[in-house]
Design a protein that fits this description.
329 residues; alpha/beta; 10-stranded mixed sheet; 11 helices; 33% helix
Length: 329
C-alpha cells in the first residue's frame, strides 16, 4: 500500500511540474535561491581523477582569471537578497591573486557569508593570510589524505608528503588568525569501520580543523565515468536540483544554470551586463527548466545522459570532539 501511495504522489508531482511550472509559468521561478557561485578562475594546479580537469576535458571553455573590475560589476548586478557567495567552481581559487580583494568586497555585504573551497595543495600562504583577515568567510579544503596511495591516485600529480606539509601550513595560518576550517575527503569505500578513529587522529594533529566530511566521486555531466557509480545509482530519476537551485558565474561573467556545467553549454546570460533577477528568469533559463519539467532531456545534450538526478551520494561528517578543543577556541 505504501508503494502505491508513493507512486501516486510521484505521478502528481511530475504532472504538477509539467502543467504548472512548465506550461503555466513557462519555466519561471518565483522563489529565487539565496546562494550564488562565482568562479575566480577555471585554472587548476591539479589534474584530479575525480574532475574533468584530469580527464581530457581541456577543450571546453577559455581559461582565465576574473579581474577586480569584473568582480565589482558582478556584485553590483546582484539585485536580490543573497545569503551566501561561494568563490569556487571549476578551478583552484587561490590561483587568483585577487582572491583577498574579492573577499574584502563580499565582507562588506550585510548578512552575506562567503565560502571558499580549495584543494589546499601548495597554496599561497601569504594570500591565505590576507584572505583570513576578513571574518565572514568559511573555508573547506578537499584533501583525501587517508594514505599516500589513496591521495596520489585521486589528486594527480600531487605528492602526499607535500599535501601534509601544505595542510600543516594551512593549520598554522588559521591558528594565527584564531579561525577554523573544514576538510572534505573522498573515501573510495575505505575507512568504512574506522572513520571516527581516523578523524580523531586528524583532529589531534591539526588543531584548527573543525569538521571532516567523507563523500564519494560525483558523476559529472558528460564525464560521468569519473564518479563512483556502483551502489550509488537509483533506478528512478528525480528532478535535478540544479534546475531549481541558484546560478553559477564563470570567471568571464557568463552564467550557467548548472554548477557541473564544465564546458559552458547551459549558459543563461552574462552577469556583467544583466541583473541577477533578470538573468535567473531569462529566456534561456526558462527554456532549460521547461525541458526538464516536460522530461525532454534529449533537447539538452548536457542533461541527456546525466546521472546526477539518479545519484545517491552518501556523505558522513564528523565534528571535532569537545574535549579536543583548545582553550582559545
Amino acid at each position: 500500500m505504501k508503494n502505491v501511495t508513493r507512486k501516486i504522489r510521484s505521478f502528481f508531482r511530475v504532472l504538477r511540474r509539467a502543467l504548472f511550472d512548465g506550461l503555466m509559468l513557462q519555466g519561471r521561478r518565483k522563489q529565487i535561491p539565496t546562494k550564488i557561485i562565482i568562479e575566480p578562475t577555471n585554472l587548476c594546479n591539479l589534474k584530479c581523477s575525480c574532475c574533468p580537469h584530469g580527464n581530457h576535458a581541456e577543450n571546453g571553455r577559455e581559461k582565465g582569471l576574473m579581474s577586480r573590475e569584473m568582480f565589482v560589476k558582478i556584485l553590483a548586478n546582484i539585485d536580490l537578497p543573497v545569503k551566501e557567495i561561494c568563490l569556487y567552481l571549476h578551478g583552484e581559487p587561490f590561483l587568483n591573486n585577487n582572491l583577498d580583494f574579492f573577499v574584502s568586497q563580499t565582507d562588506k555585504l550585510k548578512g552575506v557569508l562567503t565560502s571558499i573551497y580549495s584543494n589546499g595543495y601548495n597554496i599561497d600562504i601569504e594570500l591565505l593570510n590576507r584572505v583570513l583577515a576578513y571574518k565572514k568567510t568559511r573555508f573547506s579544503f578537499s584533501m583525501d589524505i587517508i594514505n599516500k596511495e589513496e591521495y596520489e591516485q585521486i589528486r594527480k600529480p600531487a605528492v602526499y608528503k607535500n599535501a601534509i606539509e601544505s595542510l600543516q601550513k594551512i593549520d598554522a595560518a588559521f591558528a594565527g588568525h584564531n579561525r577554523k576550517y573544514e576538510l572534505n575527503i573522498i573515501a573510495n569505500g575505505n575507512l568504512s569501520d574506522n572513520k571516527q578513529a581516523f578523524c580523531n587522529q586528524l583532529f589531534s594533529r591539526f588543531l584548527r580543523l573543525r569538521k571532516i566530511s567523507f563523500t564519494t566521486k560525483f558523476p559529472w555531466p558528460e564525464h560521468f565515468y569519473v564518479g563512483d557509480l556502483s551502489g550509488h545509482i537509483a533506478k528512478k530519476r528525480t528532478l535535478c536540483e540544479q534546475i531549481t537551485g541558484g546560478i553559477s558565474v564563470y570567471w568571464n561573467g557568463d552564467a550557467t544554470i548548472c554548477s557541473y556545467d564544465f564546458s559552458g553549454k547551459l549558459l543563461i546570460g552574462n552577469l556583467l551586463d544583466t541583473s541577477l533577477s533578470k538573468l535567473y528568469n531569462s529566456s534561456q533559463a526558462r527554456r532549460i527548466r521547461k525541458y526538464h519539467f516536460f522530461h525532454r532531456f534529449v533537447k539538452l545534450p548536457v542533461c541527456k545522459e546525466c546521472l546526477l538526478p539518479r545519484f545517491t551520494n552518501r556523505t558522513t561528517s564528523f565534528n571535532r570532539p569537545k574535549e579536543t578543543i583548545t582553550k582559545n577556541e
